[in-house]
Design brief:
single chain, six-stranded mixed sheet, four-stranded mixed sheet, globular
Length: about 700
């Protein structure tokens, strides 16, 4: 038989299982049987063992059951038999070895074994060599589900192959893959990418523990991937690769496959095993083998691209420059044009670039993106405009939040040193739109402005455009439709946040209306905006619907069970990071204050906007603090369960003026002609006691309502 002998590999499986058994016996002598087992910040312990066996594993004593499951997979390890020399036996032995390695890695967390060096296992944006925590899992799992990430890759390399492996990792990462690295010829750490896949299947796919067929089918459909070995594998490495084939991860290698693995590898159901692949050809071969769709075309820019960079935070000590976000004027606008008005691929900068300023110097910034297409509709403009967020956020060293005139862009010192230009960002925007929306977009051109006068002109243009967009929904109510729409774009920052968009409650970012959600779902049925059937009305005042609850429960990965679309206090809507304003209970005033992102001062809550945003964002339900869009107070669905607009007691002066016309219209309809002047702002007080005194003086109706808390 060519290659390694089965007996050698099966004996190695027996050895690692025996090592795990022995380690468990000794650990039980040192620790209490009830000792909790888990990898740091994960939803459950031992994801491979628990997902495949269905065992509930939460304490040290439970590992005895795993050992029993291991032995059931290995009927003929201690003696070589002719009928054992087949791929099924090798595959079972590989899974058994993975079980054993997961036990040893878990015991390492107790400090008992040094099987896995925890200090060497850092989770970093471009690759993983360790168990990804829940935040990383949920943030990046979304990319696999909506196909913005084509799959995962596992690179097996020794320290001697470091330069070669790093080049390969960068190429894989530039193709938008999630990249894991394992240690040496034994493929130490293979349990982490496989555990990652198990957790994705359970959290996003609803796969039940113990349902192996459903797990492996889910991985085949939703988590395509492959393994690359740069050099020969030892016996344990062969076992790990054999076990991984159950997850539909085939092997590509720079070695002749039969010199590193048994001939039985060729019969694995995951696909053909390819050998003799030169490093330069491995990526192309892997994508071809797994029928993966390449993401962004390779762009000539001095930065890596990929969904792994979404959610990257750039702290002040790493910051080179920033635009928008209240620091300077900033605006993003996408408009449709006639085909003859757009020069496809033209990216132009008007004004100074990043390379023309010094560290700490900020620029006003406007992105004007003009698109054309035979199938393009004006209703699609806001949807396409929101794609600028994901495009810009995919660039290494660039942080992007917000939209419209609330956009906020930060660029790191590292990216600036490498020569990143605003023109490069424009090229990424172009490539993203042309690739993802080729069905409806034929041409794209990007204009970037960094001079104050020009930015002001784009800002004025955007304001006129957005007013017209917002008028499309006037007269439509939530009762007119059985369908709402979701938005999960912000799950890159808040993994279990789900925004529910209704005709009378636009997205809290202010950029997506119900019509925009409808258009988005038509453009991309697997995108972030999907239809939600309302279902049975459970509470009309709080806006609780059976269908919405079911959707949010699934889309939040089981974290959010119930949602009151119109409530501030009971099961309120979650928030990501892009909300325009925050609504906050003021108990002493028996009312609600609203503070917008642009307001930089203190509020009667005792916190400024930044402090409130830290409490509201992240995707958790926080009764009494809810992210909203700035015009939501004018909606009839503005927290009717808490009394609606009659509870509004404090708003920053500038925002209050923006809302003047709408509030006065409501005043007239309600027979409260002087209500607008009853609402306090920062000129009337920023301490709740001072606001209360003002409300009493003016006779604000909130003071006569039932206690809000």
């Amino acid at each position: 038989m060519a290659g390694k002998k089965f007996s050698e590999i099966l004996l190695r499986a027996d050895a690692v299982v025996t090592e795990a058994e022995t380690a468990l016996i000794l650990a039980l002598k040192k620790y209490r049987p009830e000792t909790t087992l888990e990898f740091t910040d994960q939803a459950f312990s031992l994801p491979i063992c628990s997902s495949l066996t269905g065992l509930h594993i939460s304490k040290l004593a439970d590992l005895k059951l795993v050992v029993e499951a291991i032995r059931s997979l290995m009927p003929c390890l201690r003696e070589e038999k002719e009928d054992c020399q087949n791929s099924k036996v090798l595959l079972d032995a590989g899974v058994a070895a993975l079980y054993a390695e997961e036990i040893l890695a878990t015991l390492a967390f107790l400090g008992y074994t040094d099987y896995w060096s925890i200090s060497a296992g850092a989770v970093i944006p471009d690759k993983w060599c360790y168990a990804a925590d829940n935040t990383v899992l949920r943030r990046h799992g979304v990319g696999l589900i909506d196909k913005s990430v084509p799959g995962i890759a596992v690179v097996i390399a020794t320290q001697a192959q470091n330069a070669e492996s790093q080049k390969l990792v960068r190429e894989l990462r530039d193709k938008n893959l999630y990249v894991f690295e394992t240690d040496g010829a034994s493929a130490s750490g293979m349990i982490f990418p496989l555990g990652f896949a198990c957790r994705i299947a359970r959290l996003f796919g609803g796969v039940k523990p113990g349902d192996k067929d459903a797990l492996f089918n889910y991985c085949k459909e939703k988590i395509p991937g492959f393994i690359v070995a740069l050099g020969p594998l030892d016996d344990l490495g062969c076992l790990n690769v054999a076990g991984a084939s159950s997850w539909q991860l085939p092997l590509l290698s720079t070695e002749d496959i039969h010199t590193i693995c048994p001939a039985a590898f060729s019969s694995f159901s995951a696909g053909a095993i390819k050998g003799n692949s030169a490093v330069g050809k491995i990526v192309e071969a892997a994508f071809d083998l797994r029928s993966m769709q390449l993401p962004l075309a390779t762009l000539d820019i001095p930065a890596s691209l990929g969904s792994a960079f979404a959610g990257e935070r750039i702290r002040d000590d790493l910051l080179y420059t920033e635009s928008g976000g209240g620091r300077t004027d900033g605006i993003e606008l996408l408009v449709s044009r006639d085909l003859k008005e757009v020069e496809d691929g033209d990216v132009t900068l008007f004004g100074p670039d990043i390379t023309d300023i010094h560290p700490g110097q900020n620029l006003p910034l406007a992105f004007l993106v003009e698109v054309a297409g035979r199938l393009l509709q004006s209703d699609y403009e806001p949807v396409l405009e929101r794609q600028l967020h994901s495009a810009i956020n995919s660039i290494e060293g660039v942080m992007h939040e917000g939209q419209r005139d609330l956009m906020w862009l930060r660029i790191s010192r590292h990216a600036a040193r490498k020569g990143l230009s605003l023109l490069h960002i424009g090229k990424v925007i172009y490539a993203k739109l042309r690739q993802d929306f080729s069905r409806i977009i034929d041409k794209v051109q990007v204009k970037i402005f960094t001079q104050q006068e020009s930015v002001g002109e784009v800002l004025a243009h955007a304001n006129r455009t957005n007013i017209e967009r917002d008028r499309r929904l006037q007269g439509m109510t939530d009762d007119d439709t059985d369908i709402f729409y979701s938005c999960i774009i912000c799950q890159s920052f808040a993994p279990h946040h789900v925004c529910v968009i209704t005709p009378q409650r636009a997205g809290m970012c202010g950029a997506l209306s119900w019509l925009d959600g409808k258009a988005s779902s038509e453009i991309n049925i697997n995108g972030p905006n999907r239809p939600i059937r309302k279902g049975k009305i459970l509470d009309p005042l709080r806006g609780e619907f059976a269908g919405v609850n079911a959707f949010v429960r699934q889309a939040s990965h089981g974290v959010i069970k119930r949602l009151g679309c119109y409530s501030l206090m009971r099961n309120p809507m979650t928030a990501g990071n892009c909300f325009e304003a925050v609504a906050v209970i003021l108990p002493l005033c028996n009312g609600i204050m609203v503070v917008n992102r642009e307001y930089r001062g203190m509020t009667p809550s005792g916190m400024d906007f930044t402090m409130l945003a830290d409490l509201v964002g992240g995707g958790d339900q926080t009764p009494g603090l809810v992210g909203i869009n700035r015009y939501y107070p004018l909606s009839p669905k503005f927290f009717p369960a808490e009394g609606g607009l009659s509870r509004l007691v404090w708003v920053p002066k500038k925002l209050k003026e923006e809302l003047r016309e709408g509030i006065i219209g409501w005043c007239q309809a309600m027979g409260l002609p002087v209500f607008f002047d009853m609402i306090a702002d920062e000129t009337k007080g920023i301490a709740e006691e001072d606001v209360l005194a003002f409300l009493r003086e003016r006779g604000h109706p909130a003071l006569k309502l039932d206690p809000i808390v």
